[in-house]
Amino acid sequence: MAPPRSTDEGSVSSERLCEGLALALVLAQAVAVARMPFVAERFFCWAPHDSRADFVVTARHRGEAVSPDAIRIRYRLPAQEWHSITNVQSVIATAESRMAAADRWEVRLAYRVNLGPEQIWKHGPSE
Amino acid sequence: MSRPEHRGVPVETHALGVLLLVLVTARTGWDPVERAVPFIGLFDHIGTAHQWALGTSVVFFSGAALALFSRFFRFGCGLAGVALIAKVIASMPGFSNGRLFDGLMLLLIALCVTERSRAILRAQVLVLYAGASLSKALDPDWWNGRFMTAILEHHLAPGPFDLASRFAVPAGLLSMATESLILVALATPALRNYGVALTTVFHTAILITLNEDFASFYCAVALSSALLFLRLPDVRGVSTPSRGLCANSVFPAIREAPWTRGPASVDFARGRLEGAGARLFLTLSHLPSLALVVAIPALCGQHGLFWTRTALASLAAAAALGSGAMVACATRARPGKA
């Protein structure tokens, strides 16, 4: 039978566990930063305020226009965003993917990045 | 030489935890972050959105209270950090780099207590600057000036900056170069003090020039940088009480100035952190920083005259650096343990 561990040993192993957790947290962020060139999203990779997107979201459901209030409640998006426009697209795509098929909207996102030309992104049933 | 601790936590880490908790409590702790389109779908099923917002706020404030007013400093920091991270994970549209940084730093402060693990706290700051630098380098709009043009056109604070919009390209390049330099300087032990100085100047300039409420995030980053990276010359050899605070200056011109040979107001060389006096000193040394850290972001928000913003942001920078310097002085002053 192994001898009981002393309090000091327990304390050391507890500290090591904490350090391991802390290291894992930082390494996970390092991985997120390293994959940045290969993905469009800018969540969790410390790209703060590096882009300015002005956008307007409109949507239709079963052929009828959805009210701005309903859009705001579903997506909680401001009309202006400091982060990447792809984050906005991710929010819309994720929100829609969690809806039942019958409740999904046809979404149109008109946006300008850094005062550039207007672009259109569409998502939803007609795609 | 073992490093001084306060209730089992290295003093720099303790100071950073206290200042971050006060900063977050004063600025964003009350924000009822709505749960909406969470990163983890499961979060949608934990109570109502209102209950979630209330619950995370209660957990945050409980953690802050434990850390600030009880002996459970680490546990309190961890609780507050987890609550902030949970707020971030629960809302994709409300994603906030500032809140995420505060939460991660508090959680890491709870997890990292040994001298060796303080390197992990520093690595957190380095990862932030690595991400920020890479993101800008990958974006053509930062190289051709389009981003800066958009920023200067819409977000410039009122003040004497009419010429600034003509310098969008150099301003963008300068920002990218500065962030990269900060990363290199903080990562190089011999250059850390320059890195801290550059960090402070950079974030202060952003606070002054942009009419946006970035103050909390940048104050948190500047504080972390000052407290984790600032290092003063080893003053263990300075044992005469006739040289005081100035003898510990990072600047040789001040360190060697004749007036530093006068009576010392604070005798770091004889300071000991175990005693009640040292704890009182540490507490008092944070008071100006605490007051400024709380007051300045509130005043530097989306209003304020140019010179008011400049003066207040400069005071915030001085407070961050001052706090770092005080703690660095105190941690070096252990002649008896050399």
Walkthrough of the structure:
The complex is a heterodimer of chains A (127) and B (338). In chain A, strands 1, 2, 3, 4 and 5 form a five-stranded antiparallel β-sheet that branches. The mean pLDDT of chain A is 87. In chain A, strand 1 and strand 2 form a beta hairpin. Chain A is built from three helices and five strands. Chain A has 127 residues and is α+β, with helices and mostly antiparallel strands. Chain A has helices spanning 7-34, 68-75, 85-97; strands at residues 53-61, 64-65, 80-81, 106-113, 119-123. The N and C termini of chain A lie far apart (66 Å). In chain B, 63% of the residues lie in helices and 1% in strands. Chain B contains 13 helices and two strands. Chain B has helices spanning 11-27, 49-69, 73-89, 97-111, 118-138, 140-143, 146-155, 168-187, 192-209, 215-229, 252-255, 276-299, 306-332; strands spanning 5-6, 9-10. In chain B, strands 1-2 form a two-stranded antiparallel ribbon. In chain B, helix 1 packs parallel to helix 12 (276-299), helix 8 packs antiparallel against helix 9 (192-209) and helix 12 packs antiparallel against helix 13 (306-332). The longest helix of chain B has 27 residues, at 306-332. Chain B is globular. Chains A and B meet through helix 1 and helix 3 of A and helix 4, helix 5 and helix 7 of B.
